[in-house]
Design brief:
Layout: E1 2-5, E2 11-14, E3 32-37, H1 41-52, E4 57-62, H2 65-72, E5 79-83, H3 91-100, E6 109-113, H4 116-125, E7 131-133, H5 138-148
Helix pairs in contact: 1-5, 2-3
């Protein structure tokens, strides 16, 4: 947020989009981008930190499904990590909208939820067999990320 004072004394606040993460390794190859869709700031920050700590991976966090759709118009992620239960559009509704876009039909998605049983049928109906239940181990999430989108081969990664 930037505050600007005009000549008449009024303050105008302008929301500035957060900068995109650095997506290059030392060899110039694109790092794996993980788009995290999590309405809880603390959880989103923890997830992003765990992913950003991995060589060859970069995470971008948004707080809603609408923000995710906006981000998908500006970035080309390798993986989505999506909270199922969010205010407004749910993670499952986001998934349906993403899958309807030909550019993202094969984009891998990891769902996170506090109540897997509540959404079990919805997940099965969409062909989704795996999700991570909260609270989860960050190492488990990193293993999922690396399994779904392995680091790029032959790339000397920045430390």
């Amino acid at each position: 947020m930037i505050a600007r004072r005009s000549g008449n004394g009024f303050v105008t606040r302008v929301r500035v989009a957060s900068p995109l993460p650095e997506l290059r390794t030392m060899a110039g190859a694109r790092a794996r981008l993980v788009l995290i869709v999590e309405d809880d700031k603390t959880t989103g920050d923890l997830l992003a930190s765990a992913i950003n700590d991995q060589r060859g991976y970069s995470a971008l966090t948004v707080r809603s499904a609408d923000e995710a759709l906006d981000a998908l118009g500006r970035v080309d992620p390798d993986l989505l990590v999506v909270d199922i239960r969010m205010p407004g559009m749910s993670g499952l509704e986001l998934y349906d909208r993403v899958r309807a876009d030909p550019r993202f039909r094969s984009l891998p998605v990891v769902f996170e939820t506090g109540t897997g049983r509540e959404h079990a049928q919805d997940l099965r109906d969409r062909g989704i067999a795996t999700y991570i239940k909260k609270p989860f181990d960050l190492d488990e999430l990193v293993r999922f990320v690396k399994r779904l989108v392995p680091p790029r081969n032959g790339t000397k990664l920045a430390p």
